[in-house]
Amino acid sequence: DAGVIQSPRHEVTEMGQEVTLRCKPISGHNSLFWYRQTMMRGLELLIYFNNNVPIDDSGMPEDRFSAKMPNASFSTLKIQPSEPRDSAVYFCASRAQGGGTQYFGPGTRLLVL
Amino acid sequence: SQQGEEDPQALSIQEGENATMNCSYKTSINNLQWYRQNSGRGLVHLILIRSNEREKHSGRLRVTLDTSKKSSSLLITASRAADTASYFCATGGDTDKLIFGTGTRLQVFP
Q1: Where are the alpha helices (DSSP H) in chain B?
Q2: pLDDT tens profile A63-83
């Protein structure tokens, strides 16, 4: 199994630009989670989906952030417009139904200049 | 927001020594999990302990859970240089969410 796949692995962009992060969960997993990790705030849950439906987006920092899961094998996290304070590592994780373990992707390191 | 606070924040030991990391949390839980993160990588699941369990082993790892004190510990025995990483506890409750702690940075010197 290829594990959770994220793209791009690195993204450098300028303030005001739109950024789209992508995630392919492990096949057969029905829950998907988006996290953000920074030195100051640690690992924060942004949003998670069950069976492609957003369940809890209370961690999404503001309206500039949006996430979609159009099907069981793909999700996007979009930031529009991006700001320097959005610079962080963004992780996607997936989990099997009824399971407790989350499987993390390698992350996308985002730098907004 | 983070539920777990980990102690110590950083730990340096020699190969062969044991490493103990502690995690405290605030609310009731269904399970507590430990994850490892190597520099620049994603988190890797190590072990899960349920709220009705007190101790669990996996290879060189031993996890304890004291729900009355809302605390857990992770012991790595006979540490190796390859154990160098950050270790996070994460609590699971009635929802699907995991709340991660602040992490302990472990450095194992050869």
Answers
A1: none
A2: 999 999 999 999 999 999 999
Q: Which of B42, B96, B102 shows the shortest C-beta gap to A42?
A: B102
B46: its two tokens? 């190590």
Contact A92, A4 (CB under 8 A): yes
B2-46 pLDDT, tens digit per residue, is 466 888 999 999 999 999 999 999 989 999 999 999 988 899 999
Helix (H, G, I), strand (E, B) or coil at B92: strand
Contact B55, B63 (CB under 8 A): yes
CB–CB of A105/A5 below 8 Å?
yes
Cβ-in-10-Å burial (0-12, 13-18, 19+) of B21 comes to: buried
Residue of A29, A40, A43 to mutate, testing the B interface (most B Cβ within 10 Å of its Cβ): A43
CA distance A65 to A18: 10
Dihedral angle over CA of A21, A48, A32, A49, nearest 10: -110
